[in-house]
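Hi W., the DQA complex you wanted:
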Amino acid sequence: MAACDLLEVRLDLLEHPETRPWAHLSGLPILFTARRGDEGGAGDLSPERRSQLLESVLEEAALIDVELVSAGEMAGVLEKSAALGVPWVASWHDFEGRADSFGKIPAMAEQAATAGAACFKAAVRLHHMADLAKLAGLLTQPLPLPLSLMGMGRLAPVSRLLCAQYGSVLNYGYLGDAPTAPGQWSAGLLKAAVSASEIGLT
Ligand SMILES: O=C1C[C@@](O)(C(=O)O)C[C@@H](O)[C@@H]1O
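Structure:
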């Protein structure tokens, strides 16, 4: 079993993205991300630089990730990706885990759908067991687009299995030896664990 079904290339983490260091990984669809600094990106790249990075890979992208709050400042690249039929994952990250984050997610998902996103993704640091239920519970609400939800921190691993069981799409794990978020599973382990825990919850 391959370790993953889709690869995410974090353009903001690459020293020399123009050398296309992902080129040898042919055969798998690629999601390209150029993360903004205040949502976990490296180098605090400007919206112009992030747009330029994404525009340079649109022809080979299966999907692109742009933070919901960057939709306005990166409208140009979103228009180009839409014209090419490349879907947009609208994302949002809360590394602190603020108490009001769970309640904000449905409205952000609605906003993402209206703005043309194919999926809304939120990663939130979890502090308490009750946070697990709040996060996975969002997947039982009717919303106009698929959700990709995951926890960060000590409860991240269990949250990622729970959310996958409740229908979260795009479940992230790392390749190599460096997680890109606190509490991320390795991709191979996550895929095996999700497969082993497919018990048909709705
Ligand atoms: O947004 C996400 C999700 C993520 O932050 C995670 O929590 O696994 C990992 C990032 O690489 C990715 O861009």
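The chain has a mean pLDDT of 95.

W.
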